Amino acid sequence: MNKREIKTAKLTVDGDTYQLPIVVGTEGEMAIDISTLRSRTGLITLDPGYANTGSCKSSITYMDGENGILRYRGIPIEQLAEHSTFRETAYLLINGELPTKQQLDQFSARLNDHSLIHEDMRYFFQNFPRLAHPMGILSSMVNALRAFYPEIPERSEEEEINITFSRLISKVRTMAAISYRISRGHKVVYPRHDLSYCANFLNMMFDTPVKPYQIDEDIVAALNVFWILHADHEQNCSTAAVRLVGSAKVNLYAAISAGICALWGPLHGGANQAVIEMLQHIYENGGDPVPFIKKAKDKNDPFRLMGFGHRVYKTYDPRVKIMKKMCIKTLKKLNIKDPLVDVAERLEETALKDPYFIDHHLYPNVDFYSGIFLRAIGIPIKMFTVMFAIGRLPGWISQWKESVDDPQWKLHRPRQVYIGKTKRDYIPIEQRKE
Ligand code: SDX
User: Fold this and answer.
1) d(CA 25, CA 406)
2) What is the DSSP string of 388-422?
3) SS3 123
4) Is the CB of 233 under 6 A from ligand 1?
5) For helices 101-113 and 86-95, angle between their N-to-C axes, nearest 10 degrees
């Protein structure tokens, strides 16, 4: 029977049979709709980590983990990386269509208008401990944006939301650069109206009065690709956090701040920092990947190959091929010989021949080469995940927008199976046994 003709699933419990509707996606994915399961059967499902559970229907990003496919609004990531810019891809994700020239110019003008931050916010940056991790600073400061930019009643809800989108995409980039400059005790560099989104970021990071930053269009183009590759990835951990927090109808800044916190984790976006630390450690211990692959396979050893494995991709992450090519091209352009590239390639080659990695479908993911690129363009390792966050903003925003516009919107509130103590009485303290 053709998949699309399957309309229901049968569930038999204790002799009773229930028909549950099947939902079929535009790419043929199928799901059992269990939204009436508890009311009809008294049963819930249990799925730790939600590996088998869809939280929503979405039109934004399509991933095929078995075949290594990634498309934003139907357009393959390979085409966007080759032809688009980060601004244009952000517009596509949020609005659903590629912009006309006029729409893109208006979007760019709005990003420029909202690129500065409230001057009083600088005092926050100046008072964080110098060694504070930039992801903790970023999530705090994004949450603080609501205090500095409260809703204006006279504005329509749609205008308020569009301005908030532009503020986030533009100001988060500015805040990341300001945070870096202040952490180094350097003079803050303001965004310029005559520079593009990516060129502005690089200039705000690296321009100094004594050594003006030379905008290199190849590096600007590479940074566009880096952020395009990170722009969205359907229901990953941080996007799920944004949707869950957003489901309580909290303001978007707070929901994005929650996404930044989730992304910080080394199992998620924090892996790009962990990969470089792992490669550096392998390099400092002779560069032979074999002992580390052995450790990664040892169930008694918590060590994992960072930048390897993925919940959805069971083959090459399509972003890796683009990232690796862009990384090697950038190193060549900057005439940088990074020994970690050889370590990474040896590690990749050795792991992909190992039965454990083959059997577990463990391949490099987006974080495996991204840190080598970031290091080459001068981004400090503690800012790697901030770079991921800036890229993921359009994805988080588009996913939040889709969830609040969803006619089936519901507060996210999972159930559980209780396995604790059954009913027992309170015991006064004098009767409790030591
Ligand atoms: C990102 O979801 C997204 O889309 C995320 C992301 C995005 O763009 O938003 O793509 C970005 O977060 C990429 C992932 C970055 N994280 C890492 O590189 C950290 C290292 N990778 C893993 O910890 C792991 O692969 C995860 C967390 C990414 C995915 O893990 P799963 O799907 O929860 O699988 P699992 O942890 O249950 O592992 C399944 C098996 C286990 O072995 P068994 O007990 O079944 O024998 O695979 C093994 C694991 O031990 N395994 C690894 C491994 N990853 C999984 N073994 C060694 N090294 C690894 N990296």
Assistant:
1) 16
2) HHHHHHHHHHHHHHHHHH-TT-----------S--
3) helix
4) yes
5) 100
Ligand 1 lined by 243 (C-beta under 6 Å)? no
Over residues 2-48, the pLDDT tens digits come to 666 678 999 999 999 999 999 999 999 999 999 999 999 999 999 99
pLDDT, tens digit, 9 for 90 and up, residues 313-358: 999 999 999 999 999 999 999 999 999 999 999 999 999 999 999 9
Averaged pLDDT score across all residues of the chain: 96
Q: Determine contact, residues 306/268, Cβ cutoff 8 Å.
A: no
Distance CA 370, CA 376 (A): 10
Angle, to 10 degrees, between the axis of helix 134-148 and the axis of helix 157-183?
A: 140
Tell me if residue 353 falls in helix, strand or coil: coil
- Per-residue pLDDT band for 140 (boundaries 50, 70, 90) equals very high
Do residues 171 and 145 lie in contact, with contact meaning Cβ atoms separated by under 8 Å?
Answer: yes
Ligand 1: centre distance to CA 314 (Å): 10
Question: Residue 151 CA to chain centroid, in angstroms?
Answer: 27
From the list 114, 310, 317, 338, the catalytic residue is 310
- For residue 27, give the nearest of 3, 52, 51, 55 by alpha carbon: 3
* Residue 329 CB–ligand 1 contact under 6 Å: no
307 lines ligand 1 (CB under 6 A): yes
Share of the chain above pLDDT 70, in %: 99
Q: How far is the CA of 160 from the centre of ligand 1 (A)?
A: 38
**Residue 348: what are its φ and ψ, rounded to 5°?**
-60, -50
Distance from C-alpha of 270 to C-alpha of 307, rounded to nearest angstrom: 10
Ligand 1, pocket-test mutation among 47, 61, 72, 268, most atoms within 8 A of CB: 268
Residue 3 CA to residue 22 CA, distance in Å, equals: 10
Q: Is 14 a catalytic residue?
A: no
Tokens of 236: 């990953």
pLDDT at residue 1 greater than cutoff 60: no
Q: Which of 298, 311, 347 to mutate to test the pocket of ligand 1 (most atoms within 8 A of CB)?
A: 311
CA separation for the pair 230, 29 (Å, rounded): 24
Active site residue 186: no
H-only helix segments in 188-270: 197-206, 217-229, 237-246, 252-263
Query: Cα(21)–Cα(35) distance, rounded to whole angstroms?
Result: 10
Nearest to 144, CA basis, from 48, 38, 257: 257
**pLDDT by residue (tens digit) across 222-243?**
999 999 999 999 999 999 999 9
